[in-house]
Amino acid sequence: MRVLLINPETPESFWTFSNTRKFLGRKALIPPLGLITVAGLLPREWEFRLVDLAARKLTDDDWNWADMVMMSAMIVQRESLLALIKEGKQKGKLIVVGGPYPTSLPDEALEAGCDFLVRGEGESAIPILLEALEQGQTGGIIDSKTKPELSDSPIPRFDLLNFDDYIVLGVQTSRGCPFDCEFCDIVNLYGRKPRYKTGDQLIEELETIYQLGWRREVFITDDNFIGSKSHARNLLAKLTPWMKDHGEPFVFWTQTSVNLGQDLGLIDLLTAANFSTVFLGIESQDEDILALNGKFQNIQNPLLESVNNINANGLSIVASFVIGFDNEKPGAGEGICSFVDTAGIPIVVLNMLHALPNTRLWDRLKKEGRLVETNTTGQTTGEKMNFIPTRPESEIVAEYLGAWDHLYAPSRYLERAYRWFLKMRPTRAALGNGEDKSVRVTRISAGTTQWNIVQDLDRFARFSWKAGIRSDHKMQYWKQFFGMWRHNPSRLVKYVNVCALGDNMIAFKKVVHDRIGKRVADEEPMSKRASTACR
């Protein structure tokens, strides 16, 4: 059996990191972990070909080669998936689709013509699919409601990837989240009871990518890496010595809940294992809004204190915020800007609330008759809200654009990055407490497979030419550069890397404006309304 694995296109968003990809000479941020995990569940004797449309085009030769086509998609990939299903059926191919989007909204993929629609997780669903194929079935719904133990999950087929295409490689150690935020679809997809891979499984996956030659960043894609702190500590206890024995080949990103900021010991274990960055769902600084949405973990302790603790003890943050919650007061965008400015968080994801299928929010809005669409794709891209909010959408949009303009004004972004890394403790070596990981973090962040001083200096020179020679804020850039060199030199290169990442958000700000401008071309110009939103 020859299986063509296709990862559909993803529209440009915050997460496509277009500028960084071009700067590093990469084609995509991260490979499709779900598809290569499915490949690991299929018979080893089958032949596989992976086409990630974020990295390369699909050709007639790819279609002609395949006996069966398998695709997995998130909701944001909806349009591309449906088009691919139709194209595949026109070419007479057996089409199998799965993933979060077909699981949540199966009717759309079925109407497009897919043969097999797989709902649920691959570890329990793929054996049912294989049995159906062996019995000669040519289509149907494979619906597995079982939440499989991840001890049954195989090593993903990392060998199918072209490593040169990607900035980051993904691994997963758990699924599910113990929290139940109203707007989040994780509980519906993966459950509230987290399930875990063992420490030995994690090490085996890391050893696999190490032997295949990967020497850059690794994103642990868990919904909440510290959903069980005891399990996280057990993983880190195995991970840290493995990293030391292998010469610290990776730097890790992951997702955690904000309560990490109240556990300094766990932060220290993360940094000891070479974690550099955590993604935090802060969502709102308004405790009433957080409580209304069931995000009680964010109000158990002062948010600003938690963020400051994470920062001071050696981790960077990518912080997510949402505008458009029910009962949100006018000025929510200003509140987000104020919190971010006070904390000094450089990288912020701004979302306009969309109701995701089958969440508690979706069910409530449907019951209240407030849903206006059956799908959603645009939380970070400014597309029209798919429900009727409790305040005018035009007001929400104005604050959303205003927040983008405020937070990603180049000079303001540079200033936050400077304050962030000035507050961060020096590296262990600078403190005299052990081996300095900052050099390796620097090398990996630069996107090199091995440290290459020529490449690193070239990238630094190119960014400094743009930010320190050609830009309107060139004096600020050099003043802050030498200020960091003087006051916290062990964090200098990481600071420069974060400054360079800001190019993505500053560029994407224009994309958001353009998209919203087209959608509301007949309304009062958004730029006029947004200009006062975050003063």
UniProtKB/TrEMBL annotation:
<dbReference type="InterPro" id="IPR006638">
    <property type="entry name" value="Elp3/MiaA/NifB-like_rSAM"/>
</dbReference>
<dbReference type="InterPro" id="IPR006158">
    <property type="entry name" value="Cobalamin-bd"/>
</dbReference>
<dbReference type="InterPro" id="IPR051198">
    <property type="entry name" value="BchE-like"/>
</dbReference>
<dbReference type="GO" id="GO:0003824">
    <property type="term" value="F:catalytic activity"/>
</dbReference>
<dbReference type="InterPro" id="IPR007197">
    <property type="entry name" value="rSAM"/>
</dbReference>
<feature type="domain" description="B12-binding">
    <location>
        <begin position="66"/>
        <end position="140"/>
    </location>
</feature>
<dbReference type="GO" id="GO:0051539">
    <property type="term" value="F:4 iron, 4 sulfur cluster binding"/>
</dbReference>
<keyword id="KW-0411">Iron-sulfur</keyword>
<keyword id="KW-0408">Iron</keyword>
<keyword id="KW-0949">S-adenosyl-L-methionine</keyword>
<dbReference type="GO" id="GO:0031419">
    <property type="term" value="F:cobalamin binding"/>
</dbReference>
<feature type="domain" description="Radical SAM core">
    <location>
        <begin position="163"/>
        <end position="384"/>
    </location>
</feature>
<dbReference type="InterPro" id="IPR058240">
    <property type="entry name" value="rSAM_sf"/>
</dbReference>
<dbReference type="InterPro" id="IPR034530">
    <property type="entry name" value="HpnP-like"/>
</dbReference>
<dbReference type="Pfam" id="PF02310">
    <property type="entry name" value="B12-binding"/>
</dbReference>
<dbReference type="GO" id="GO:0005829">
    <property type="term" value="C:cytosol"/>
</dbReference>
<dbReference type="InterPro" id="IPR034466">
    <property type="entry name" value="Methyltransferase_Class_B"/>
</dbReference>
<dbReference type="InterPro" id="IPR025274">
    <property type="entry name" value="DUF4070"/>
</dbReference>
<protein>
    <submittedName>
        <fullName>B12-binding domain-containing radical SAM protein</fullName>
    </submittedName>
</protein>
<dbReference type="Pfam" id="PF13282">
    <property type="entry name" value="DUF4070"/>
</dbReference>
<dbReference type="InterPro" id="IPR023404">
    <property type="entry name" value="rSAM_horseshoe"/>
</dbReference>
<dbReference type="Pfam" id="PF04055">
    <property type="entry name" value="Radical_SAM"/>
</dbReference>
<keyword id="KW-0479">Metal-binding</keyword>
<dbReference type="GO" id="GO:0046872">
    <property type="term" value="F:metal ion binding"/>
</dbReference>
